[in-house]
Amino acid sequence: MINKQSLWFLTLFSLILVLSVYYITMPNELLLTNNNQYSDKSETEDKNNESEETEENAKVTIEESDLLVAMRVSLEEERLNLMNDLQEQLTNSETTVEEKNNAYEQLRYLNQIQGDEEKLEAKIKKNFQLDSFIQIDNNQIKVVVVSKEHDNKLANNIMRSIQEEYQEKMYITVKFEE
Question: What distance in Å separates the CA atoms of residue 88 and residue 104, rounded to the nearest whole number?
Fold first, then answer.
């Protein structure tokens, strides 16, 4: 069984890890604009009056990696909330031993899934030189690949390479994004 000190260490370590990954994947331009925004607030108010006409013609473009980062952050937030709920069950003195064991097993399963997703993303990057996002839910694997070409043969090869990692039959879907 896991003691309280180890559980708190694991909780804080996972929180620090998630925040550091989020900070590292954050675009540098976003950090620079936020810093400039606070320091030059009076200057930006003057510029806003002048630049209202140019904002109408501006186009917003989403980079390929921004979509994947958004999907990863969304999944991480969802899993972090679930992990926090499970950790509360573990530390609650009123829960039964069976409930605590189930919560611990679910935490282990979530950590295993997260590792498998990272391993599969690295495999797709290595074999096909494509950025991807993978979400595993029981026996279903959702793959989002950033590629300009939407090729059935490529999707089939990706599905085969993922299925090689598993003994049992997995239901794999591949979605292409530009």
Answer: 11
